[in-house]
Amino acid sequence: MPYSIVTKQGNLLNKEADFIVNASNTKPMLGSGVSMVFKRHCGIKLQEDMNSVLNSIDNDLVQGDVVTTSSGAAKNFKYSLHVAVMNYNKGVKYNEKNPTINIIEKALRNVENYLLWYAKNKSNTIKLVLPLMGCGVGGLDKSDVIHLYKNFFHWNIDIDCEVVIYGYSFEDYNQITKIFLEGK
Q1: pLDDT by residue (tens digit) across 67-119?
Q2: Overall number of domains in the chain
Q3: Is 104:149 a contact under the CB 8 Å cutoff?
């Protein structure tokens, strides 16, 4: 069965879900953009969980990696999937900090691998909430990311997964909806 796609506008953290994606960084620190919204919604417990996960893997994340934590103090979703979008590792120069479309594709594959594991071990019905990764401070073109999402999520998958793609502004939402409706 294919992914079920829903588009929404507004604050992605207001949605009931199993997983909400935090477009984060390789440290992972709650900083600006979507991560700042996570910090405000989920509280300091979320950063503590992120630090604990990073310490437990005893390795630096690279762009496209995904780690999971609780939802902190949030009550409307179960888990946060922190995607290393921005590269904050030591020695990285400015131009190497920003993601590429290939990094976002790698991140989507890693998110999907986690969802498949979760479906096999926990529940076969999943709701995932996803922002436009890499389009804020990362500087990626929103149209490119939306087209990537459309191509990626048209695959058939062996789980019942609803993907809610959020556009922060009405312009983002309209662009997401328009691209997903192209060719239908």
Answers
A1: 999 988 889 999 999 999 998 887 766 668 899 999 999 999 999 999 999 99
A2: 1
A3: no
Q: Which of 111, 112, 88, 86 is nearest to 99 (CA)?
A: 86
140 within 8 A of 130, measured Cβ to Cβ: no
CATH code (residue 155) = 3.40.220.10
- Cα distance between residue 13 and residue 66, in whole Å: 18
Tell me, rounded to whole angstroms, the distance of Cα 153 from its chain centroid: 14
Domain holding 104, by residue range, is: 4-181
Does the CA dihedral 48-50-51-52 come out positive or negative?
positive
* pLDDT tens-digit series, residues 26-42: 887 887 777 788 888 88
